[in-house]
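Researcher: Re-running this chain for the archive, since the previous output was lost when a drive failed. Same request as before.
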Amino acid sequence: MPPVVPNGPRADREESRLALVRRARRMKRCLDEVYPDAKAELDFTNPLELLVAVVLSAQTTDVRVNLVTPALFAKYRTAADYAGADRAELEEYLRTTGFFRAKANSLMGLGAALVERYGGEVPKKLDDLVTLPGVGRKTANVVLGNAFDVPGITVDTHFGRLVRRWGWTEEEDPVKVEHAVGALIPRKEWTMLSHRVIFHGRRVCHARKPACGACPLRKDCPSFGTGPTEFEVAAKLVKGPEKDHILELAARG
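Model: Regenerated structure tokens:
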């Protein structure tokens, strides 16, 4: 059975596998044009800093993490620093990120594991990364893609929501989503695709009220109509520093 495109007013179409691949890649190319400068929105200068920042980003925003990490990174420069940290002092650095006690535990355990198993260095393999405290597959793919240029798909809340809304997959499990999307898009594109989908989820394709009428991807989106379709109304929902660029492309298309 060919997959049925879910959601929205266009959901009654059946789509062949080839048609799905072609549509997904058109949407990917559109995202490339909309967000040419997309990147990880966490600040870091080395793999350890990125790994720590991603661990801290759980249940909080990248903006909040970026407010905390300058002082944190100045104090704790190596994995051994985290392993030997004074717990109460480390917790104070993390307090505003939420769940700071659990995060302190994760960072101390992470530092110890890096020292004991990897000589204090962040490993470059997914299978090694996911064995570290506080590190799941999503975190590992962020680190691999952005610190080591190893392609990976980061399935966060935005990514999973959008690719399901777009009919790229119906899977809910993040690992299954990762594999399903990876089968549609060439491997070399995975890291940048992740950034651009996440950017789009934060700026245009909102969970409750997407800016459908001002979305440059609307021609290929089976869920068009989930949010307001009038350009002027939808334009007010678009967020972020790329807003003018997004609206220009949407108006042109």
